[in-house]
Amino acid sequence: MCGPAPRRPPARHQQWQGCEEFARLWAEQDIKVNGRGHKVMRHPDAGVISVHVEVLVPLQDPDQRLMIFRGADDRSRSALERLSAQ
Predict the structure, then answer these.
(1) For residue 50, what are the β-bridge partners?
(2) 77, 85 in Cβ contact below 8 A?
């Protein structure tokens, strides 16, 4: 299973380890951006979190999706950092 390294660097610098297929697809630029947007979510502990969203689709496997959520403002980035530390 692909995923971030056990000691996670800040979200914008995450390194994916143990996922050769993802690394290969990324290096080949075999992924297209299928959508971008903005979402607002309400978390029971962190409150309102505003995120920018990108949806990537591997060209060779269009049934797969990789969704990337990034904090849209300082408060949301802070909330996401706190949640990821739990």
Answers:
(1) 40
(2) no
Cβ–Cβ < 8 Å for 11, 51: no
Q: Using the 8-state DSSP alphabet, how is residue 18 labeled?
A: S
24 contacts: CB under 8 Å, gap ≥ 6: 30
Q: For 52-63, what is the mean pLDDT?
A: 86
CA-wise closest residue to 30 among 63, 61, 69, 53: 61
Listed in sequence order, the residues at least 6 apart from 85 whose beta carbon sits closer than 8 Å to its beta carbon are none
Tokens of 27: 């290096």
Is the pTM higher than 0.70? The answer reads: no
Q: Is 26 within 8 Å of 15 (Cβ atoms)?
A: no
